[in-house]
């Protein structure tokens, strides 16, 4: 490698320096606040070029290189950037958040200090209904009349739990024990530091439409308000090559290829061979999760679904 | 290295096989249950000897080698052993537990399934008082009369929170949202898998007398009921070289040496130089945490405390 | 969750127990040898069902669940399985291997013991040529005549380096320094322990045709000889949903959809808009890596390439 | 917690900004060069105070808090700082370096580019002799006359290996294979990024007198040239509470206490009970590593060794 230059300045991102310390509100009383960062788009390129040495003179440009790294999951250059946030989150969402192990965390201690006097409140129109098709999700909301009753009950529960907490403290009970019956929705705060590679993993999972609304709201804020300003080339590549990507399994790829080359009969044969076309007592195609996901992908790709064509005939 | 033998059997620990699947009760309704394990004392020795190659013929015996590894923090051979547990823990304690990032976890999902219908209950005599000297701890308990009232209030809080949860579910509210006001003390369950090196780190922190009672109860059970049976040589070395060890800082070591060689005046001079002997308005030694910790260590080591001798004169 | 059963036995995989300790040869003098394992296909299902609780009664079967977990990157249940191998590898390949950080390693120490007296040898017909299109790869081989000369030179280099090593040791030079000029191809040995999730990440990268031949040979052996025997349902899902999968970027998916719905003009417009269709001085499509990768995917999917159709007209 | 301030500036350390980009030379042709950093002493305090909330108003000062965190291994606040270095290191030392898994790395690729044309050279007076007492170490050096011969042989080996490498490349052999017989001492370069907690772990192991000279030279440079400038309060606490600390095992602490309280007979009894005082055929105390380490600690602490007193009688 060539001789290193004898002086450097730290990369700064003006668009990010502008929002340092600003609390982006999330949910009814939460926030995400940028504390510090390290690196930028150029720092990723620079680290990648250490790997490639003189060879990269030929790699066209920074954008092309970043997209290449993203597409081929060359993840180490993205680890060269770090983000440090101050967040305020309901403990219930924090329980999901903290499962991302590749991050550094300093959380507000309710052993040491009095618990934050706030718990997430739900508006009358914001009580979500259990999803029909997806055991893990929600869809639609309760009508606002019924919702209002649940919101009142929620407020009362919070008040009672807080009152009991205060009474325990007043009686001298240790903070570490007094807190035990606070609601899961109680807010906590933390410093959370993570590198960009692991942050994108977090965002890919938590910006997904199947992620729970609460944590999704935080992920959306981090992604669109902070990461998009910080590393715009990475953000674009992330949207194109991760969030917006479609993955076809070996069989799905074979079905698409058969459709194009040999017509739907060949594609049908592949699906049948994989056991996707079993029928129930009523002669309908039996539920089959992998087949159903394939159908969604075919629809997105504007391709006909061979077993539905067949079904119609 | 010599030729590897052409056949092997997996190490088994009879004392551990006996307790596979047995739930050791913890707290009022929790447990720790051994699901599987990998390796034993001999597997650690075997891995260490890969590193040392032919050279280790000279290392006396397994016990000596394991103690050497523990003393000198040669941690990689301990990573060669794994433990898999099924645990049932109040979410409040689980929040601390999960901060140990070097473990694999599958936790019961209250998005997917109905929350476990149990929350940790506190007996009338088990309400702990806030510690005076330690902002993070507890000491002593509330008298049982007052405690009984808090226990009744606790039961009522649990009942109300559970009733609200059930009403939400009955109205069709999504599980992921309905759970939001369950108390932190609600039980959760998880499979938790960790290697022995990281497990010892967990145990060293969580068996410490300053750890909160609840998580300490789990750590004690894991350590004394399971690890002690599994890898007895490691367990002995852990008690001797980690849990029971005393660490002296550079200054503390210098003070001890000065005491022995030059008498308490020399030791006093060192303490004064470090700013440990400042006095408050009343002429008393001002509070100084580092000095106070030194005093405890001197007492444990049966050595005189130079500034207290001085103080008395 | 229901009451846990009061006894368990550890999962065993008969097909794996048969090969415990057997050294599968790799390269000229390397091997991969299974030392121990933890878990099996059923253990993954069991861990996943802890998460899903009672809810999973509805999930059809183990195979379906494992494929679902693989497809949707629910990775934690795969972490519940561990593999421990004894490997013998040229240090040059080991340098790549060790970059996978989520594993536990005990490597043979050449500070402590005499370096292994073997370095990877290259047969006359096995000198690979630098790839034209890929700066990181190789394709084709040198003719055997020229190769034979290089193989003789290689043997001589090894002999000289080893002789110098021995002379240094004989003169009393420390092992840690004497080894400094051994060739990178010198064999080392290690115990390597990794969980199945991280192992699949290793295999996905190192079984890839772009991985270097040497490490690919180890990955192929681990995958096809060991993992396939150990967790056959996982292995099948891995081949279908990871190794054999095709990922389409947002733009590629849009191009495919445009092709089907609106014909190639619409697809061409998308490509042009993305800057994929710039032409060089000679009027040819300029090199564009992202477009070239799209072309390969279209070919695999049996779909026409809109700019090549266009080009022909 | 109180409301966050609405603006922030990133912490900068003037003493570190001065050396950004400067290559500190290490060994004959290596270097360590600071590329970027995140955080400072104050950032650690700030993160710790998130945990402690309002409570920390009472914690005296930054220095006291940092020393407290270091002493009690509260490691998470130290993770809030990051260092990014560009290093040039012989591959042989890099093999040890890279074993620290909690770091991010982009290494120069010799698949992609021509290997760096430099290997570590040894001066005539710098050939170290194998240590007598420690199988892993070195002590003393070869006389310069004999050393000069080894230095000539080393140069010749390097030249031959490099010539073979060049001939292979000239014949079209792939870079990934051509490099296979370069000496282990060949220099490589990398970007290496690590948080301060993990960096201290690296430094504690690699600044240790038992660490190999080469990697110790890098660790000393990183510690004394960079970390000491960056976080002076942390560096002081690290020297006092980690590098300069003495750890006494449970038994060692009991022996010291017995010495002070009950005299050497009681201490001797403890040692005898632990099996430390077995004698060999000649009636001498048999070698016993744990006892020998205890002797060193007693000497450092200025305390008499009970079995040596006994021995003399």
Write a brief caption for the model.
Four copies of one chain form a homotetramer. With 313 residues, the first copy, chain A, is of the alpha+beta class.
Chain-wise SSE layout:
The structure is a homotetramer of 313-residue chains.
Chain A lengths: L13 H4 L5 E4 L3 E9 L2 H12 L9 H10 L10 E9 H7 L6 E4 L20 E3 L7 E4 L2 H27 L4 H4 L8 E9 H11 L6 H18 L1 H12 L2 E3 L1 H13 L1 H10 L15 H12 L5 H7 L1
Antiparallel strand pairs in A: 1-2, 2-3, 3-7, 4-7, 5-6
Note down, in words, how this protein is organized.
Four copies of one chain form a homotetramer. With 313 residues, chain A is α+β, with helices and mostly antiparallel strands. Chain A has three domains: 1-114 and 187-245, 2-Layer Sandwich (Gyrase A, domain 2); 121-184; 250-312, no CATH class. The first copy, chain A, contains 13 helices and eight strands. A five-stranded antiparallel beta sheet of chain A has the order 1-2-3-7-4. In chain A, strand 1 (23-26) and strand 2 (30-38) form a beta hairpin. In chain A, helix 2 (41-52) crosses helix 3, helix 8 crosses helix 9 (232-243) and helix 10 runs antiparallel to helix 11. Chain A is flat, with a radius of gyration of 25 Å. Chains in contact: A-B, A-C, A-D, B-C, B-D, C-D. Strand 8 of chain A pairs antiparallel with strand 8 (246-248) of chain C, so a sheet runs across the interface.
């Amino acid at each position: 490698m060539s001789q290193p230059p004898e002086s450097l300045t730290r990369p700064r991102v003006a668009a990010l320096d502008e929002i340092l310390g600003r609390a982006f509100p999330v949910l009814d009383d939460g926030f995400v606040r940028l504390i510090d960062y390290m690196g930028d788009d150029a720092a990723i390129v620079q680290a990648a070029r250490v790997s490639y040495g003189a060879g990269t003179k030929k790699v066209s440009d920074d954008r092309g290189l970043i997209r290449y790294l993203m597409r081929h999951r060359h993840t180490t250059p993205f680890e060269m950037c770090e983000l440090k946030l101050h967040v305020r989150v309901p403990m219930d969402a924090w329980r999901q958040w903290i499962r991302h192990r590749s991050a550094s965390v300093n959380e507000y201690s309710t052993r040491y200090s009095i618990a934050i006097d706030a718990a997430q409140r739900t508006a009358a129109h914001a009580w979500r209904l259990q999803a029909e098709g997806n055991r893990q999700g929600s869809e639609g909301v309760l009508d606002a009349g019924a919702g209002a009753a649940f919101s009142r009950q929620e407020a009362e529960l919070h008040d009672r739990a807080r009152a009991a907490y205060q009474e325990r403290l007043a009686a001298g009970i240790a903070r570490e024990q007094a807190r035990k019956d606070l609601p899961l929705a109680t807010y906590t705060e933390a410093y959370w530091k993570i590198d960009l590679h692991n942050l994108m993993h977090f965002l890919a999972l938590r910006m997904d439409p199947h992620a729970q609304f609460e944590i999704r709201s935080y992920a959306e804020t981090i992604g669109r308000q902070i990461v998009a300003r910080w590393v715009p080339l990475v953000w674009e590549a992330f949207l194109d090559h991760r969030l917006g990507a479609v993955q076809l399994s070996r069989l799905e790829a074979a079905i698409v290829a058969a459709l194009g080359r040999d017509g739907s009969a060949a594609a049908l044969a592949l699906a049948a061979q994989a056991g996707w076309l079993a029928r129930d007592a009523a002669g309908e195609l039996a539920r089959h999760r992998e087949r159903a996901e394939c159908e969604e992908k075919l629809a997105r790709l504007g391709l006909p679904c061979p077993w539905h064509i067949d079904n119609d005939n």
